[in-house]
Automatic annotation (TrEMBL), chains A, B:
UniProt name for this protein: prephenate dehydratase
Domain of life: Bacteria
InterPro entries given in the database record: ACT-like_dom_sf, ACT_dom, Chor_mutase/pphenate_deHydtase, Preph_deHydtase
Annotated Prephenate dehydratase domain residues: 6-184
ACT domain location: 203-279
Enzyme class label: lyase
Lineage: Bacteria, Pseudomonadati, Bacteroidota, Bacteroidia, Marinilabiliales
Matching Gene3D superfamilies: 3.30.70.260, Periplasmic binding protein-like II
GO molecular function terms noted in the UniProt entry: prephenate dehydratase activity
Length: 301, 301
């Protein structure tokens, strides 16, 4: 018997977060727990540790979602997996509406920005920033708003019975978002699903003393231990301008070697924090490539 | 006799770009050349190499402006300076308007997001994404639009004779943007202004072979040459998902030592490109700190 998994997402049903959650858990037996904000999502997970969370962290066009790194670091929750989703944007409206009827388009500012080339063809359409792509679609259906369109995923069109006025309107087709699946630590220790996948990736955050070559030392030690990096990001600390935190993602073959490398770098960092250990994630790659070899490819340095 | 300097900015007069330009050139003898987009700004500089450009590159809250890194890298132009500006947002409207009259607020999506806490108090005000903070202010004055507000700098209020309905409405007061001053290479070689300031900082971009510890090697060599880092950013290459470019900022005391270090790392990188050499920039710090010591402080690692 499969138990239904509950997964907290920011925004409404039909969003890219829901699509990524379904792809990660590879099952329809999941129930979405919608949250207004990412802050509320973390609060939800803290209150009920049977609930998972999913959160966008990085996009191949716009880079890291820095606020989410900060929320994760401060939450005490851990990353238990990742998924990379190809982002496609659809222009949705009530059935029967034509693009000439549309006076306003509502969506998340990032989605509006990513459809810039398409929207430039329709200068009379007002671009209105909302909290969420899918919730904009829901709102148009709930209020039966003519003359309004939303930019949202195809799933939102199905869910809220809207028509797709224009398909795949994103300017750049090579647009992937990486999502992290997060959970309460206690729970991950007993979850079959998660330990069945071999852990071969980890996310860390640390500060460094302001001494010459301090980052170089940490990276050298990781290299001595055959630990590869897939990401490095220096991030200004809010309230201490031009002071930095370093977020790094590591991949490794040997879990013990990885643990030893953490012990080896810890004394050279300030406040080293392990944000989670997980398995390198799959990616959706339908319209970009059908090359199966690249399914789990991840470049390292 | 001082000659008037022309400085291309993205967006309209009265923007943070204009404020930063005036602060960097420390003079009123500059004339703004407004450009619709950053792409147009680079085009303008290429056509007339007597024109400088100024471009936001990094914000202490939201991180790097990745698109601008890409534009800079591909432009063949170079960075000749930097300035760090404390960002403040004002709610502007036609004189006589009250906040209760306002039905829509127009601004750049980033400004809307940075004033989230303030705007939450007025859920009836529609947040409308525009291309530019200052241009939204200008539009309200040009069209004499009642019921409309813009989020823009105080300079825009003066310039377009608007009233400040609410002052300093940004959620986080520790909000700095780092601007780069860019120019055509040929020009910088003859410009007194620039060579009078000792060069002690540089911005580089490179790719790396996918071999274990490749970044660690580059950073180790820089450390051996006593070159400090102030920033590192791995940035996904658009069109080659999970392939990365590295943008690093360096500071140094000895210019020759720095040149030698570039020669030393070049064979270990792919396509090392120097984006510019300049003097560590001043920052505006009025409401955050009056501590003069921190004026040029920049943390290194």
């Amino acid at each position: 018997m499969t138990t239904i998994k509950r997964v907290a997402i920011q925004g409404g049903g039909g969003s890219n977060h829901e699509i990524a959650a379904k792809a990660f858990f590879n099952s329809e037996d999941i129930e979405m727990v919608p949250c207004q904000t990412f802050e509320e999502l973390f609060e939800t997970l803290r209150k009920d540790n049977s609930i998972y969370g999913i959160m966008a962290i990085e996009n191949t066009l716009v880079g890291s979602i820095l606020q989410n790194y900060t929320l994760l670091k401060d939450s005490g929750l851990v990353v238990i997996g990742e998924y990379k989703l190809r982002i496609k944007h659809q222009l949705l409206a009530l059935p029967g509406q034509k693009i000439e009827d549309i006076k306003e388009v509502h969506s998340h500012p990032m989605a509006l920005a990513q459809c810039g080339d398409f929207l430039k063809q329709y200068p009379h359409i007002k671009k209105i920033a909302s909290d969420d792509t899918a919730l904009s679609a829901k709102w148009i259906q709930d209020e039966k708003l003519e003359g309004m369109a939303a930019i949202a995923p195809e799933l939102a069109a199905k869910k809220y019975s809207l028509e797709i006025l224009a398909r795949d309107i994103e300017t750049n087709k090579r647009n992937f978002t990486r999502f992290l699946i997060i959970s309460d630590k206690a729970k991950t220790e007993v979850e079959d699903l998660l330990i069945s996948n071999k852990v071969n990736k980890a996310s860390l955050v640390f500060a460094l003393p302001h001494s010459e070559g301090s980052l170089s030392k940490v990276l050298s030690i990781l290299a001595f231990y055959n630990i590869n990096l897939t990401k490095i990001q220096s991030l200004p600390v809010v309230g201490q301008e031009w002071e930095y935190l370093f977020y790094i993602d590591l991949v490794f073959e040997d879990y013990n070697r990885y643990l030893q490398s953490l012990d080896a770098i810890r004394p050279l960092t300030k406040g080293l924090k392990n944000l989670g250990e997980y398995h390198v994630g799959k990616r959706s790659y339908d319209t970009v490539s059908n090359d199966n070899k690249s399914l789990e490819e991840q470049k390292t340095f």
